[in-house]
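#struct-help
A.M.: can someone run this one for me? Single chain, 233 residues.
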Amino acid sequence: MNPLPPSPPLTSSPTPLRPPTRVLLADDHALVRRGVRLILDAEPDLTVVAEAGDGAEAVALARTGEVDLAVLDVAMPRMTGLQAARELSRLRPELRILILTMYDNEQYFFEALKAGAAGYVPKSVADRDLVEACRAAIRDEPFIYPGAETTLIRNYLDRARQGDPLPARAITEREEEILKLVAEGHSSKEIGDLLVISAKTVERHRANLLQKLGMRDRLELTRYAIRVGLIEP
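D.P.: on it. Structure tokens below:
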């Protein structure tokens, strides 16, 4: 009796790989973008498909391009990362957003969450934490960089015990837009053209800002804008 031929080896069908997460990277410093891109592109599940030099450009790219995740710097010309995050959350609620910043600041953290971001990563720890933050955002999980957890949670619990609210916004979103552009040196007409409002409306907003913040002139507004991270010194 002839022996039976050996059975063919069992083969399993290959598991389809998920396409990499498409990342939009926005920072007004080309060297920073290059460094962050090197970090992200080194990962098989992440790929930077678009770069922007300011928040307005980031919004435009995210509206027209196919991206899954936007990584936004806070302090950028024309529109900050927080302003861009608010706009993108309205326009593309399915888009995941991370804030990448040099400011290790509790106020920014809560503003980032309120703006629709999934997390907040200081540039000082980007090489260590940014990749994991991106993956957490795509899983629709919040990301708090490890060094912030203890302080933020303690402060939040202290506020809750004392019945205090989270830090309030001192000015409206529109006033924040005006303040940033004033601090960048734009005239009322230029600001009106950028925001599609009249120069008189810009002047009225600026007067409201001075009154709300207890300030006297553009110089004091500029110092305030630097202090709260709307522009860089």
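A.M.: thanks! The domain at 21-159 is CATH 3.40.50.2300 (Rossmann fold).
D.P.: also worth noting: Confidence is low (pLDDT under 50) at residues 11-16.
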